[in-house]
Amino acid sequence: MADSFWSDAERHLVRYSGAGRFVPEIIERAEGSFVHTADGRRLLDFTSGQMSAILGHSHPAVVETVQRSAATLDHLFSGMLSRPVVDLARRLAESLPDPLNKVLLLTTGAESNEAAIRMAKLVTGRHEVISFARSWHGMTQAAANATYSSGRKGYGPASPGNFAIPTPNTYRPDFTDENGELDWRRQLDFSFDLFDAQSVGSLAACIVEPILSSGGVLDLPPGYLAVLRDKVHERGGLLILDEAQTGLCRTGDWYAFQRDGVTPDILTLSKTLGAGLPLAAVITSDEIERTAHERGFLFFTTHVSDPLVAAVGNTVLDVLENDKLDRRAAELGAHLAGGLRELAQRHEMIGDVRGRGLLVGLELVHDRATKEPADELGAAVTRRCLELGLHMNVVQLPAMGGVFRIAPALTSTVEELDLGLQILDQAISETKR
Fold this sequence. Notes:
It comes from Paractinoplanes ovalisporus. The protein is an alpha/beta fold. The protein is built from 13 helices and 18 strands.
């Protein structure tokens, strides 16, 4: 049966990642922090699915909500409203600082970023968009045009007016101060000097993640976001923050931007909002929404304001609030990062440990002094981890080593984190040999 499964997969599935490879396991079910394979293996999931299942797989409260909603109110005409939709919009607004008060509920991160960029262009009357050179914002048109980490080759010209700026990377700094540390202010000045030289004076928006996940778990330095916002506003643009992976408690705060005290003009949420189900949101101010509406804002989709996933979103907020998972993410994140730093003391191939809360990056290198990238080591360690019962995700970009994105569920136990650390330790040791 396994042979026929993989034969059918090869014959009938479109390969949708550049590598063209699927995890070589048939997954039968998932529960909590583990996924279970057809041959009876149990894999500890250190990625929360696609960085989304923040409550673990098949959380009882989510299961109950899905069963109830599927039996009573699943999908409606897009112009109809239901209580779960309005309740979720109100609760999201209440969880955020002023003036973020207006909510549009969609399905995916790409879709929410698409809507945010579309709104920014309409409201400002401009068309230029800035994002990081290692950004990932989605695969739909505007989101893909603002994505630079991969996927740009072979699809013809991108939309005019898209600009990449250098990504602040404290481990591999391009602009340095007298101590050899990243001089992010000078880097940011250079970025906007370069943008100004190319711009036609029509900046609509800058879209960034507070922590670049697909870019290698790169946390923006404290203070960076405020200066970036000011430079964008000086040029008449809006600041869009993509918190697909960082929103809703994963970093130890409800929203990652809270650390910096910088409120975006438009916020997008996705992955974590549905805890594994397709739910996303665009959140903005009354003023921006009003202007967009007056100018005919249109983002009418089949699944806008769907009641079933909105009900799940309300359940996710219930669990996050009742179980105080922001604090738990901070505590578990400190434990995880501490364990990874202990591994770094034993393994020279670990060059850097970074991130916030339960979004942690582990970068592998050949040499700590030169920081020579170790892409093949990352792939080898990933394979060995899977053989030992741990599912890991490694980011491999040019000029960087293999960077593990470690994002366990917020409901993980200390024992599960320790199990993951133990398996990772063994995999690195055996790969070195």
